[in-house]
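Q: Structure tokens for this one, please.
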Amino acid sequence: MAKESKNILLVIGDDDYAAEAAAKGMIAKNVPEECRASAVETIDGAAANAESQIASINACLASVQTPPFLDPVKLTWWKGVTFFPGGGRGGKISEDVKNALERFADTLAQSPLPENQLLVITSTTLLQTSVFAKKMKPIADMQDCSVPERSKDRAAAALALLPSLAKAEHLTFAPGADRAFVAKTGPDTRTIVSELAKMRTYLGDGKGEVSEDDVAAITSTGGDDTEIWALTDALASRNPARTMAALRCFQGDGGWPIMVSTVVERWFRDLIVAKAGGGDGSFKARKNAMAAAAFSMNELRVGRYRMVALRERLVSSQPPPEYVEMEILRTIMPRKRS
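A: Here is the predicted structure, written as tokens:
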């Protein structure tokens, strides 16, 4: 039975920045900086056909079977493998490649790497029930860097990761500014890191806390079109086509009608406060006041009432998406005067 190894790291997931960061963390922890240029060997895992895929497997195996020459340690990084089971179009690989991968795992299990040799493998996808995955689990540390499928989960994951990424730039976020930041950048980790570096430059050395006004001033709008700000901005425009486009972005997520009705009801509630002259002078309060100016107080109250009623109906029954869309559109359409 192969012993458990801590010098093999298998990173799976489509967050390429997080996967690369995990690999670089392994390098930083185990390979002295002065010898990384010679002690780290990178094997390209991107291969389009069976012949090049088997060649990539053999190149990685040859690397891990070759001990370090002059350096005290050697690390092989099999980078961006595109042909693991479950990856690629349809998740299918040839039988020859499948067998070669399983032999690769068997070799690692039967001949564990010495303490001064390490292997890092990064790949977008790996079917966990595949024979290859089952052979790798006992001998490798597995790390998941997958991006959540649902938009609200992507946003939540990005928000949870933000403090550690901000710390690298010596930044912290004022209450509410973190959500405003992620809402603008989207959940892509690489984009967030880039925007944090830009924020650091914008604030200069004298300031470390990011406010909502700072986010509004310098942060660029990023990749995830299903963020809440896109919907509320569309509602504020009172443009039916824009609102429909924003709503359609949510419809791949389970439970989206209740989530959206809750968000829109809360938005109308905030606008009622802004219309009445409330607010603390923050960026969010000023933005709400601008949006509220496009509605009468009665329209805001009717809109909120419609969303409360919609949410109650959604909890008790399952009206079709078209009904949800029409109810939301009615909240922004100008009311006809008799």
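A few notes: The first strand starts at residue 8 and ends at 12. The CA atoms of residues 290 and 313 lie 31 Å apart.
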